[in-house]
Amino acid sequence: MAASGGYYIAVAGDEILAQPSSIVGSIGVVGGKVSLAGTLDRIGVHPETLVRGQHAAWSTLTTTFSDEERVIIQRMMDSTYERFVSIVASGRGRDFAAIEAVAQGRVWSGADGIERGLVDGEGGLGMAIAHARTRAGVDESVPIVEWPETRTLLDLVAEGMAGRSPEADVRAMAARMAVPDALRPLASLGTVLGERPHVAVSMPIALVIR
Length: 210
Fold this sequence. Notes:
Shape: extended
Strand order of the largest sheet: 1-3-4
Strand content: 5-15%
């Protein structure tokens, strides 16, 4: 992925890679809150909030925004958005208008991102590490230390989608921790996906024919 907050950080780098089907961009800002005021009133709950200072309770879930608070929130989002676009423009060596044309919260595929100058080329984590080694002038004798050491099942599957070996990763994790039997079929992802990145969709059930 090369989108949203991750992209905000990534544009400080020398090069950005993404898979053709990755989510790229999402250069935008959204804000607001969920108000439970109407719901609570319907069920007979009437909370009272004690505050000191104007707009001190703007974020509470038991009230709605006042007109003035809406203006303030909109101003905050506009300011954050302008900074986001400016940071991307600076990192990509382009002007504000050029980035604004592909920003505004739009979400692109990795291929579209390359075409629009948001991404430098195709690749996943493995290729990014290889490029980093080249830029740093180090070979494969320099080890890669993964942190944190303990990863969840979702983390491991995501890494598999990024081009690493999902079969090896999931089986290694299963050996380190107790995995419910219903999840063990995930270990076969490697034979399904092969070496190329794909998106795998699995039903939340396991069908066993005896």
